[in-house]
Amino acid sequence: MWSLWKKECKQTAKSLIYWLYVICLVLFYVSQMGGMRGRMMTAPKEGQEDYRTYGKKDTASEAEIMDYGLSRLVTGYYLETFDTYPVGYVKEVNISEKEKEEIGEMLADMTGEQPDTLDKKLEEYMMLPWGTEEEASWVPAMRDGYSYEKFLKNMGRVCEILGPGSEFTEAKLKYSARTPVDYEGAKKAYENLVTKDGYTGGYLRLFSDYMGILMGILPAFLITSRILRDRRAKMQDLIFTRKTSSAVIVTARCLAGICMAILPVIAISVMPMIDCILFAKGTGIRLDYLAFLKYDLGWLLPPVMAVTALGMLVTELSETPLAILVQVIWWFASLQMGINGMSGGDYGWNLIPRHNSVVNYGGFANGFGQLVKNRLLYAALAVVLTAATIGIYEAKRKGHFRRRGNILFNRKKSDQA
Fold first, then answer.
1. 3-state secondary structure of 94
2. Torsion sign, CA atoms 403, 406, 410, 414
3. Which among 349, 398, 388, 352 has a CA at the least distance from the CA of 370?
4. If we measure between CA atoms, which residue out of 264, 329, 242, 194 comes closest to residue 9?
5. Least buried of 92, 210, 313, 391, by fewest C-beta within 10 Å?
């Protein structure tokens, strides 16, 4: 099998698709993490104005959620338009006069201001230069004693008005309303990065977050193009007649696809490691020098396996590029699922778990058990899909399926090898 695996790897390395794949990985890394060395995290200083670099609080209080929701509602009410994200991309929703009147009544109820007075104050407030003392002189505020339950009821009605993708769902408000940590929070985040993450862990998690997006789709192009290229070269009939078992042929091709897909990822992951090593030189920070392998193999390899195995199965079944369409749909759905968990910790069963932050080790530690189960699931799924592909391949060799485009049972077995 290993000689066949080597041959498959060589054939993949000779293809234009593979080098386009490598170029995409490099360009994506440079665009997202290039120049990271100049932005490496240092210890926070007490009294500095902004601690945004060190992350946000894990949760927001009910008061913070209400204040944030009110401010967003006020802006949309004044502009008579709201941004929604029904499929991950912004969609502008313009409200009618009747809908604006209804939202105005909600705002009056929440702020205690009469609608006419509220409209006048909003007009003056929105026209003031941003960041000035005048601009800060009046900010719409929730009236004392307003209940969280009533607030959520109003937000639910706003969601009905705006339709899918509204930012006023409770889950999205809770996520968006979180504020940057204070000095103590920033200090703890940095200490966790240095002592528990070996400093490199945080940057390799960010690397995995970005590369996970590509690993959720690009390997499908590699394996699909490889199989279809053999079909165009009419190599399939020759392969069918060989004595090599279907299990060996399919497994060797699948392993080659996985290895060739993950190899450039491992090579690129060395770059953030080098950045960390150069930055930490002389600081006394103890680095985790194996972090890149832990995250490459533990975080990124399972989706590569699952995507490659699914691509093989669908391509063998359809004998068309249908696998690309199937994977695009799965990939897009996974990205949408991960939007509210980008800060990390909420990994669930998503193909593409998100952790778009160098910090938040606490979220990673709390969600680690679920992340392990998630990655094992996709590794196991890859094995199951590969086994199914072996079955399909063996059936074809025995003439049970037509080979050129139709997935139909061939009772005559005219092509039996």
1. strand
2. negative
3. 349
4. 264
5. 92
The amino acid occupying position 82 is F
- pTM of the shown model: 0.83
φ, ψ of residue 350 in degrees (nearest 5): -70, 140
Q: Are 239 and 250 in contact (CB under 8 A)?
A: no
Compute φ and ψ for 279, nearest 5 degrees: -70, -40
* Of 371, 370, 346, 373, nearest in space to 357 by CA: 346
Q: Which two tokens stand for residue 341?
A: 């968990």
Q: How far is CA 82 from CA 88, 94, 128, 135, 154, in A?
A: 15, 7, 21, 22, 16
First-to-last C-alpha distance (Å) of the chain: 21
Return d(Cα 248, Cα 339) in angstroms, integer: 40
- 322 burial class (0-12, 13-18, 19+ CB within 10 angstroms)? middle
User: Which structure tokens are listed for 126?
Assistant: 């929105």
DSSP secondary structure letters along 143-161: PTT--HHHHHHHHHHHHHH
- How far is residue 322 from each of residues 29, 105, 138, 186, 228, measured CA to CA in Å? 28, 51, 57, 48, 11
The candidate with the shortest Cα–Cα distance to 70, out of 335, 239, 62, is 62
Q: Which of 61, 102, 73, 100 is nearest to 167 (CA)?
A: 73
Structure tokens at 2: 């290993």
Torsion of CA 61, 63, 65, 71, to 10 degrees: -150
**Per the structure block, which two tokens stand in for 146?**
């307003």
pLDDT tens track, the chain, 417 positions: 788 899 999 999 999 999 999 999 999 999 999 878 778 899 999 888 788 889 888 888 999 999 999 989 988 988 899 999 887 678 899 999 999 999 999 998 998 877 777 777 777 776 766 555 554 455 678 888 999 999 999 999 999 999 988 999 998 999 889 888 999 999 999 999 999 999 999 999 999 999 999 999 999 999 999 988 877 766 665 565 567 788 999 999 999 999 999 999 999 999 999 999 999 988 889 999 999 999 999 999 999 999 999 999 999 898 899 999 999 999 999 998 888 788 888 899 999 999 999 999 989 999 999 999 999 999 999 999 999 999 998 888 777 665 554 444 444 444 443
Distance between CA atoms of residues 106 and 382, nearest Å: 51
